[in-house]
Specification:
Blueprint: E1 3-9, H1 14-27, E2 33-39, H2 44-53, E3 59-65, H3 67-70, H4 96-99, E4 106-109, E5 113-115, E6 132-136, H5 138-141, H6 150-157, E7 168-175, H7 177-183, H8 188-193, H9 201-210, E8 214-216, H10 229-234, H11 237-246, E9 252-254, H12 269-276, H13 282-294, H14 298-310, H15 315-330
Parallel strand pairs: 1-2, 1-4, 2-3, 6-8
Antiparallel strand pairs: 4-7, 5-9, 6-7
Helix pairs in contact: 1-12
Length: 331
């Protein structure tokens, strides 16, 4: 039986999802894979384009519309403050155990991810007695190194975590679907998510329900760029060292911090653009990127010169920029 990858998406995220597809297509070496896309709003044209990307390979895609499963729930999205960044698609993964009864386990991945060869080894993780395997949310946990912080108290008092630093990032999870079906009734997790305005929404729910039943994996399975100096300074030196070591050989790269389709100089941006070049939305992604850079004026020119001089920006990239710029002028 094929291994299962679950993703949640809408039309807005389809271009980035196509990059993930392309990286899976290039990085898969050992076995067949089925990608299951949970969606409410993806056009037939976009579904067809994504499907065509995977033809003539051992990777297949299946689209499951979850509209009827989520109808009637207030999922705390499309608002301000704590709700402003979140889309309803983030909650769809809570439905995975009931939507995929044929699978005992599956890997959930966010759309802003690319994988490298060797990523499939995560399926070999022993989940005996566990609900899932996840990766500590290093750059979301840094405030918890201060035991008096509000975040630390919230995780102890509201989420019931005895060790707040074991809180995981839900962008990459190996789910024990069989154990989850045995533990929770259909719709129970989504109902729990809609029961209150959690600080980190569905990610808090997953940490709340799986405490004591999580196998934590190395950072290389969910490699995220450090978001800033304050976070780096708060992390102990031994953890910094561990992160830097695993940063040399990541298997799953998660652009949860800065986005390479917006910013230049993002860690592992080469992996994103290498996969993007093989996706079916490259022109759209690259054109938007160039427009963003050109809008920054002198700042972009200065950064571009620095990148060229240091060798971070290669000839192919410069040529592509030139062609994109020329096309923009002609239009």
């Amino acid at each position: 039986m094929a291994e299962c990858v679950i993703v949640s998406a809408n039309d807005k995220y389809v271009p980035y999802l196509s990059v993930l597809f392309a990286s899976i297509l290039c990085g898969t070496q050992k076995q067949a894979v089925e990608i299951v896309v949970l969606y409410d709003e993806i056009t037939a044209d976009n579904r067809e384009r994504l499907s065509m990307l995977l033809t003539q390979s051992d990777i297949s895609v299946r689209f499951i519309n979850v509209h009827e499963h989520t109808k009637g729930h207030d999922l705390f999205v499309d608002g301000t403050g704590n709700r402003s960044y979140l889309s309803k698609e983030a909650y769809f993964r809570l439905l995975a155990p009931e939507l995929l009864p044929e699978y005992k386990k599956a890997l959930y991945l966010d759309c802003d991810i690319v994988v490298r060869p060797g990523w499939e080894e995560i399926y070999g993780t022993d989940l005996t007695g566990q609900l899932l395997a996840g990766i500590p949310d290093l750059w979301g946990n840094w405030e918890c190194y201060d035991e008096k912080s509000a975040l630390n108290r919230y995780r102890i008092e509201d989420l019931g975590l005895e060790e707040p630093l074991r809180y995981f990032n839900s962008g990459v999870m190996l789910l024990n679907l069989q154990a989850m079906r045995e533990t929770f009734a259909p719709g129970e997790l989504l109902k729990l998510a809609a029961s209150r305005d959690w600080q980190k929404h569905d990610q808090d729910v997953l940490n709340y329900i799986s405490k004591g039943r999580v196998r934590l994996l190395d950072y290389r399975w969910n490699m995220i760029e450090c978001p800033g100096r304050r976070a780096w300074a708060a992390v102990p030196e031994e953890v910094q060292k561990h992160y830097e070591e695993e940063k040399q050989t990541p298997y799953i790269i998660h652009y949860a911090s800065r986005k390479p389709w917006i910013y230049k100089g993002v860690a592992f941006e080469q992996d994103f653009w290498r996969a993007a070049a093989d996706s079916c939305y490259f022109e759209q992604l690259f054109s938007a990127f160039i427009d963003e850079q050109l809008s920054q004026g002198e700042r972009f020119e200065h950064r571009a010169f620095e990148s060229i001089r240091s060798g971070k920006m290669g000839v192919k990239f410069i040529v592509r920029c030139g062609l994109a710029w020329l096309g923009r002028i002609i239009r």
